[in-house]
Amino acid sequence: MIRSLVLAIPLVLLAAPALAGDADGVDCKNALTQFAMDVCAGRDFDAADEKLNVVYAKALAAQFDDATREKFKATERAWIKFRDAQCDHAAATFEGGSMQPQVHLECLTRLTNARVKELQDYLACEQANGVCE
């Protein structure tokens, strides 16, 4: 048993770069394996998170004074905790299953994109001198 493990470890280490390379070559338009779907879900979340960081920075800069800025930061920290807890709960149904990472990442992406929209709407309202549609 130990001998089998010792022999298997180098094979796993040799395969690791190949697996990492596959992640870069995944075609998200034709993702057919769970691995590919997980990679694509991760890419989608990374893109949403990047958008959130950009719009958050703009919204933070739009705050008029230090007290308002600190409240805005606290709101965003609370929102992130909510998002993460909500998505942990959504993925819990699939705990131990191969779909769990994908479900978790898709939830993070959905809620993050919704937050981006909220912050964009807030900025549009601020730019219109508080006149919101």
> Averaging pLDDT over every residue, what do you get?
84
Helix content: over 70%
Beta-strand residue percentage: under 5%
Q: H/E order of the elements?
A: HHHH
Helix count, per DSSP? 4
User: What is the CATH architecture annotation?
Assistant: Up-down Bundle
Which fold name fills CATH's third level, the topology?
Substrate Binding Domain Of Dnak, Chain:A, Domain 2
Q: Report the CATH C-level class.
A: Mainly Alpha
Give the CA-CA distance, first to last residue.
68 Å
How would a crystallographer describe the biggest sheet?
Answer: none
Number of distinct beta strands = 0
How many domains would you count in the coordinates? 1
Round the Cα radius of gyration to an integer and report it: 21 Å
- Gross morphology is elongated
Q: Which structural class should the secondary elements be placed in?
A: mainly alpha
State the low-pLDDT regions, or none: 1-23
